Amino acid sequence: MDLDAITKYSTLHAKPNGLLLQYGTAGFRTKAEHLDHVMFRMGLLAALRSRQTKSTIGIMVTASHNPEEDNGVKLVDPLGEMLAPTWEEHATCLANVEEQDMQRALTDISEKEAVDLLQDAFVVIGRDTRPSSEKLSQSVIHGVTVLGGQFHDYGLLTTPQLHYMVYCRNTNGQYGQATVEGYYQKHAKAFVGLTKQASYTGDGCRTLKVDCANGVGALKLREMEHYFSPELSVLLCNDGTKGKLNHLCGADFVKSHQQPPEGMEMKPNERCCSFDGDADRIVYYYRDADGHFHLIDGDKIATLISSFLKELLLEIGEDLKVGVIQTAYANGSSTRYLEEVMKVPVYCTKTGVKHLHHKAQEFDIGIYFEANGHGTVLFSKVAEMKIRQLAQELEGNKRKAAQILENIIDLFNQAIGDAISDMLVIEAILALKGMTVQQWDALYTDIPNRQLKVKVADRQVISTTDAERQALTPPGLQDAIDGLVKKYRLSRAFVRPSGTEDVVRVYAEADSQESADSLAHEVSLAVF
Ligand code: 16G
Ligand code: ZN
Predict the structure, then answer these.
(1) Residue 466 falls within a domain, yes or no?
(2) How far is the CA of 97 from the centre of ligand 2 (A)?
(3) Model confidence over 194-211: pLDDT tens digits?
(4) What is the predicted ipTM?
(5) Could you tell me if 163 and 420 are in contact, meaning their C-beta atoms sit under 8 angstroms apart?
């Protein structure tokens, strides 16, 4: 490691005085102007992680659904997964050391992690469409090269595409080709394969309106469109040509405001969906004939997918272990429906994809979705092999069902939730089942709910347990919440410190919207 070069170049990426940042739920995130040093340092860290794992490591420059002025960065581990927890700590430490201590910090990490400094290092980089992203990704590259690492800059990518590239590169192309072309071909082939399953086919070419949050999802969907256009036609709005990234649009806006995005004309009963700014989340919605807006969130997406997969498993007669993973934000109705009507086991983890993903890996088929629309379905190697074998061996309808499952495996991004791939799976399922968006929505009725954010002096005084459903500290808070919840019917509430913003989040459910609103309000007062 050329320590002198590190000292020399790190002064070019000076750390603002007194700035302390933490590698949070989805990496570092703050105002773009404060991130140059973090990018350089994450380039250094990725080179070390690559040497230690003897694998390609990914770096994505994005702040997802945050405002355009923000930016962020996260590292992607060899199998396209989120960075390992011990390395998150190294990341926080490296981002916060003063320049004169950089050499020591890097040596410490290398020693602790037994990094072989003679190994080659290779890092792949992707970025979203924020005005700040290009320059910041150059600082990442600078970090990688200062440590003698090699890199490939993919330029503009959705976050899930970058995860896909990393996964492909570390599995010798078995998962797919590590190019955008490879991504389009793999997913489009599976999608077209699915919709071609003759006896299941619905009503021919379908149309879907997609709000792209004025983000990178628009560019990528445009590029990909012609691969699947005979089967599905997508009408893009908020495609970045006029509006501002994530401003009054995108999956996060639609989910949290429970209203349609700006710039989308919705005819009655028309199926619409929204991506977030880096296209790793998706929610669906429509307006009914009376003009009422209906949101179909991650919970209902998980329900549609689970019921479809269960039907197929029943058809092929295979008893694979299926589990659905949710977080505390999952609507109570969805959990009840999954457990009581569909009889699938449901598990709750802490918020953040890495927790859900990890739990989902325990199953043959692990279905995970956050209510906010981030999710995917993971297939164990054993399940995948079994299904591929059955697709060859079985006959008639059973064979068809196995082939559908095979295409579903190829269509779901196995590394991370992916708006484009989720959209294609959902469109295929609706087509195969001949199901309308209203029928999907009618699977169950959401319990009215409200989310609020509360500014407090120090959000870390709140700690939680039981997958964030119970507050441990400050003392008395949980008792207060319990007391308030008792005042309402069908009610539930919890608080948790945000992992991405300096706020405390409050969630409440109750039998009417007024009750949910007032319970959320009362709980937020108890937080002070
Ligand atoms: C990040 C997480 C998302 C989570 C959200 C919670 C990833 C890729 N994204 O966006 O899963 O729902 O944070 O944010 O892990 P909060 O902690 O501010 O509520
Ligand atoms: Zn995102």
Answers:
(1) yes
(2) 28
(3) 998 755 444 556 899 999
(4) 0.98
(5) no
